[in-house]
Amino acid sequence: MKCPRQLRPPLGLALAVGAFAFLLLFDLHRRPSTCAVSEKPRATRKTPAWPTPPARPRPARCQPNSSVAAHPDFARQPLRVRDFLLHRHCREFPLLQDAPPAKCAGPVFLLLAIKSSPGNYERRELVRRTWGRERRVRGLQLRRLFLVGTAADPLQAPKVNRLLEMEARTHGDILQWDFHDSFFNLTLKQVLFLQWQETRCANASFMLNGDDDVFAHTDNMVSYLQGCDPGHHLFVGHLIQNVGPIRAQWSKYYVPRVVTQEEHYPPYCGGGGFLLSRFTAAALRRAIRVLDLFPIDDVFLGMCLKHEGLKPASHSGIRTAGVLAPSQRLSSFDPCFYRELLLVHRFLPYEMLLMWDALNQPDLACGKRTQVY
Ligand SMILES: *[C@@H]1O[C@H](CO)[C@@H](O)[C@H](O)[C@H]1NC(C)=O
Ligand SMILES: *[C@@H]1O[C@H](CO)[C@@H](O)[C@H](O)[C@H]1NC(C)=O
Ligand SMILES: *[C@@H]1O[C@H](CO)[C@@H](O)[C@H](O)[C@H]1NC(C)=O
């Protein structure tokens, strides 16, 4: 603000450049009309890469249950808890982006169902390029889907919806429902996905449910799952036991008594990433139909398993807590360490790329010290 004079020459220059650019654009814009004959008809170019599935009727918007507000503790709950209670009964939301029918046309061995926030474009791109790449491993088909809601911010929402529409068109890997993508709505995302899978990808033998910031060693997962029967119970991950609701309001995991009176959670697997079989997915759907939704998604699945008389199990290769992710304290990381694991939480997008590249080096020699950088 001190030196407005100095702004003038660049401003003049900018105007000149702008005018030139405008002329150039105008010129370019006019040009196609002179060679329209050789152009292909526009309609053929607009054909989407994926055939669109038939439109379904839109469910009516779910109305908040205002009688929950009568509870004496309701008013002093944080907004996210009040929001959760008001909409706890809402389970039907329109699908904004669907997967192409080809997604599960052939036999799918492992379906990667990755929970992602609408704005996490870079994370999705890196997952697509690394461990989430759709391919055959040992002859078995891997498929990928991102599970997304909508941005709660009304200014952001239309923009990210356009982004997701574009990604769906290009990659055919977006399942987006019309609900606010928030931490306490992750259970809803899980429930809607399992319902979608029942009709649209029922033949997937196994599923990986996880977050978009994990590093999943999908080749190792296939080797491990090859020894399992999709028609039997399987639910493995980072097992968490002997914990209960956190009653401190400051916590991200705060769950007040108005949500549950229970002081203990059943055993469950950390939501960062867990594997389940086709059999167990069907069992979870049965429980989901009768249980009230619980705001913490991984705990909710533990409740569903318990309801069905099933137990989650631990897999030492799945670390969603307690292991040093590369970014935390180490300035470099050893791919040989990750070579043995199935899944590790908290990777930055570029770290995923480095690790994936290192693990796929044909001459990765373990035994002696090897580092990516
Ligand atoms: C609305 O909330 C009340 C009080 O918690 C509950 O009894 C009722 O079943 C709820 N209604 C629906 C549709 O979930
Ligand atoms: C979940 O999504 C619904 C639909 O968008 C919204 O009304 C509700 O407030 C959300 N709940 C939470 C806890 O964010
Ligand atoms: C799913 O698998 C069963 C048996 O393996 C088969 O009969 C059925 O046609 C398959 N469905 C689809 C949609 O591929």
From TrEMBL:
One of its GO terms (molecular function) is N-acetyl-beta-D-glucosaminide beta-(1,3)-galactosyltransferase activity. It is found in: Golgi apparatus membrane. Keywords: Glycoprotein, Glycosyltransferase, Golgi apparatus, Membrane, Signal-anchor, Transferase, Transmembrane, Transmembrane helix. It comes from the Eukaryota. GO terms for cellular component: Golgi membrane. Gene3D superfamilies: 3.90.550.50. Its EC number is 2.4.1.-. Pathway: Protein modification; protein glycosylation. It holds the Pfam family Galactosyl_T. Coiled coil: none annotated. It is a single-pass type II membrane protein. Residues 37-69 are annotated as: Disordered. One of its GO terms (biological process) is poly-N-acetyllactosamine biosynthetic process. Belongs to the glycosyltransferase 31 family. This is Hexosyltransferase.
